[in-house]
Amino acid sequence: MTNANDVLSSIQSAFPGAVLDSKVESERRLWATIDSKKILDVCKHLTSKLNFDHYSGAAGVDWIARKEMEVVEIMASHGAHQVVAMLKVKTSRENPSVKSLTGLYWNANWYEREIWEMLGINFEGHPELYPLLLSDELVGVWPWRKDYKGYPDLTTGERAVQITTPEGYTEYHIPPTPAEVEAGTVVVERPKYPSFREREEREIKSDAEMIMHLGPQHAMVPGPFLLDVLVEGERVRKAFLDVGYIHKGIEKIMENRTWLQGITYTDRMCYVASLSNNECYCGAVEKILGLEVPLRAQYIRVILEELSRIQSHLIGTGEFLTLIAGVGYAPWQYMIIDREQIISLIESVTGARLTHTFVRFGGVRNDLPEGFADKCRKVLPYMKSRTEEFIELFEQDPIYHKRMDGVGIIRPDDAKRMGVSGPPLRATGVAYDMRKEDPILVYPELDFKVTTGTKGDSADRIDVRLREMLESIHIIEQCLDKIPEGPIKTDVKVPKKVPVGEAYYRVEDPRGEMGMYVISDGGDKPYRVKVRGPFYATFQTLTPLLEGVYIADAVAIAGSMDGCPSEADR
Amino acid sequence: MLKRKMIKNFSWPLKTATREIEITRLYPEVMMELPDAERGIHELDATICIGCGTCARVCPNSCIEMVHFKFGSPLKNKKMQFPQIDYGRCMFCGLCVDDCPVECLKMGKKVTMAGWEREDIVKRPDFLATKRFTANEVADLEAEAKRIAAEKAAAKKAAAGKEGASKKPAKEGAAAPKKKEAAPAAAKPKEGGAA
User: Fold this and answer.
1) Which of A15, A32, A276, B37 has the maximum number of C-beta atoms within 10 A of its C-beta?
2) What CATH architecture applies to the domain A250-569?
3) Burial classification of residue A481, based on how many CB atoms lie within 10 Å of its CB (0-12 exposed, 13-18 middle, 19 or more buried)
4) Contact flag B91-A347 (C-beta cutoff 8 Å)
């Protein structure tokens, strides 16, 4: 089995002098600063020789004190080994520019676009360096840099000047004051790029084609995002995705809140999976602090996260059914009724229905209440029978199969290349689960299988989700038997200031691989929090997946991904 | 016939306008039972609150403000500041409850807080304090506080007098501010009583 030391020595022997600085944190984590000229070669080497076939994401960090910027490439493997390599590339702060990895990894596209629009790091060789999350007014102020002074408040509208355009429309323009120009809070010179509409209309080749808007507000979408499809007759020829309608800037907000207050914001990224988000953030901070979580607290976390996974899958599947057949498809209401029982189970422990703020550094907030295990043992067999019923229902229904079989097929190789994770990846047959790959808490002691599909189409994705619920129920039952007595928080006093350090922590979110990269500079606030959301990666694959399908299938495919734009936009 | 119906239609609202009738019905008719851990509207135990302001500092949305409230313990804190919560901003995360050093702030099972005006949603300690001293108890406590303050002042005076007698020229500067401190301490309970 390859471990982090092997990877490091392999890079060093292949490219002498390329590794400027390195740290082997554990068998599974490698931190290395790579010479920016050789990053492409190193990545090629990792992918071809060392099975690093999963480009997991990239994070940009602004080190204002050192006058340099950093791009951290997160590399992992789909099951060949469990090393996560964090490769850092440094660049100067005056004219930041690094080499783009889009030539090697298709899914580097969005990650690099985000870093460009937020931090202003140019990526040499990137094919489409357009803003992704930000609106056009904000591009050019580089909001995630540490010296960003804040955008002037334009919401009042008192300063707006009315302009009549040549086409006869009325538009409002807000001229910047000299003071703002001097302070650097408004963009004076905006980078030039074609707008989203222009890019779209460029693709129209004949009169038979037209653009259809699905969203931002549409019954189909679970949150606001714009999916424009270029259709020729009934077929989708090309799809365009515009995200960022609920970009909340959570990563930036968390830099301005204390470590403890940050937990509340992780809830709001995706409220159906808030416990996994809590776990991810707290786990990363615990890693920096070196805290041990008591055994009972670990079990409580596992129980609640699995319960949370069940309710997330229930609502995901239910929503999907409303998408493919209007609200007429019956299981939606049954799923919501069943979900209510799970939610009240979680509520009886955490005190909240969706935004839990439950996990703490080195423990949990509350202990399990009296009689929780009995209640659980009553609900879980019921859930099990219901889930089996759902699976049978889906299997038997010929209309459902006619509608869904072979729709939105992802092949395993493509899924790996595109960086999909979670149920959409497992439906293709790749057994890739963070609970097995990068085990946390007490997962290694528990017995469970990684459910996989065979075909990788929409029906398979739903099937994998439903069967995963059965596994979750199995996990919870084991935990209830095994859970020991004891404290629920560490005896060590958690300090207000976290020591200097960095950590990357991964959990299995209901939607896939969730990772958080947390940096501390020794203060009472995080220096940088990077969220590698699972749906961000899945979202990116929608555009190639929709090419050539029927319009009606576009909705089914997008729905079967169990989307959460709120988490993708952050 | 039609006329009679019309009159009936008009008379019905006139009749019911003066009486209290059921306009909105609760659905489900019985409210669901909330668990003990529920994080609803806060409950403040004003008898033990020390007015430290930890809750205000830990709040991520800074919705807690410390304000004056008269039914607290005059023995413990002379400034008597208590949390006032703006529920327009509160996200019920419960960090204020966790960080309270004397565990006087709790979150209860009450969850409805509809009001007619925007100001209704900012809840003052009068509303939050489920447990507080009655007016009589406050008066007693104030009297006791006054007595203690007077004793202290007397003791200080005596001490200052002694010190002054022994080291008159050197300590005069240091003793004078002490007297000033003692005087407002004695006066403060009076102010509280007046308020």
Assistant:
1) A276
2) Orthogonal Bundle (1.10)
3) exposed
4) no
